[in-house]
Amino acid sequence: MPKPHASRKLYAVMGNPVRHSKSPAIHRSFAEQCGIDLEYRAIEVKAGGFAAAVQTFRASGGQGLNITVPFKLEAYALADRRSARAQQSGAVNTLRFESDGAIYGDNTDGVGLVRDLVVNCATPLIGRHLLVLGAGGAARGIVGPILEEGVTRLLVANRTVSKAKALIAMFAGHAEIDACGFDALAGGRFDVVINATAASLQGEALPLPPDIFAANALAYDLMYGEAPTPFLQWARGHGAARISDGLGMLVEQAAESFFIWHGRRPQTHTVLAALRGDSKQ
Ligand code: ATR
Q: Measured between alpha carbons, how far is 133 from 131 in angstroms, rounded to an integer?
């Protein structure tokens, strides 16, 4: 692996696939804004090769990593020290190599989502009724930060109900959280509905009852792409006043990682606007 220029800091995102990742462009943009000289690469890692790839990257001068699918659990296991939110989510998307040789792991996905909802989508969560669809790793990463916003109710609905129940059991001290299957959603009304299932990846719609959206509700998909996901298309046709994909979350989680590495908080709205412009081209 080539070494970076002496004064230049080296970072990267590791995942598979990672070729189309927007993280390099986002971090270069933040660095330019803050006057930091850095190189940010995208490194595709084969199954079984994660720990070795991290070691090689560190040996070549790397100072930190973003970790994406499917290595967030391995990154959690590799970290010597973990933030409280990483421990809560059981997954790590940000690694920082410490001067004492330790690896620090954090998870910025949940805080990135909350910031996108509250700031970019102008949807404060305090006092709101929220519905999270899905109970896998993606859902687990966002529940804690959502509860911290003071929601009145958070329902986690999943195809496999037992997995939703197991997820909410991790937040036993919170009376406002509950779990159910998709059928049991009939008659409920929610201010924010977040799709954290992998259904959009497969291009599939979810078997949801109609009328789940309260007045002025926001439908949010953690996924993003050129066109609205099947969930967002369905939401638009079933009473959601507003829809958003997860591009803003991607930029906000990157900003939080940037802060962990550089101690600086970059401005995000111009970067997000540029990406939205790009994705329309
Ligand atoms: P991730 O880490 O991306 O969350 P995961 O842990 O495999 O991935 O979880 C995938 C989630 O998407 C689960 O909640 C899964 O539901 P099940 O627990 O019932 O498997 C959900 N999911 C995937 N495909 C789905 C589909 N076609 N319809 C509904 N839910 C789906």
A: 6
The CA dihedral of 233, 247, 104, 71, to the nearest 10 degrees, is 50
Choose the catalytic residue: 22, 72, 163, 165. 72
For the chain, the average pLDDT equals 95
CA–CA separation, 163 and 158 (whole Å): 7
φ, ψ for residue 37 (rounded to 5)?
A: -90, 100
* 239: alpha, beta or left? (left if phi > 0; alpha if psi -120 to 50): left
Q: What is the pLDDT of residue 249?
A: 98
Q: With a 6 A CB cut-off, is 108 part of the ligand 1 pocket?
A: no
Verify whether ligand 1 is closer than 6 Å to residue 137 (CB atom).
yes
- Which H or E run includes 194? strand 190-195
**Encoded tokens for 174:** 């919170």
pLDDT digits (tens, 9 = 90+) for 101-125: 999 999 999 999 999 999 999 999 9
The CB of 159 under 6 Å from ligand 1? The reply is yes
CB proximity list for 48: less than 8 A, separation 6 or greater: none
> Ligand 1: which of 16, 109, 140, 159 to mutate, judged by most atoms within 8 Å of the beta carbon?
159
Tokens of 97: 């190599």
Distance in Å, CA 120 to ligand 1 centroid: 27
Query: pLDDT of 80-94, one tens digit each?
Result: 999 999 999 999 999
What domains are defined for the chain? Answer: 9-107 (3.40.50.10860), 110-247 (3.40.50.720)
Whether the CB of 197 sits within 6 Å of ligand 1: yes
User: 281 falls in which pLDDT band (50, 70, 90)?
Assistant: very low
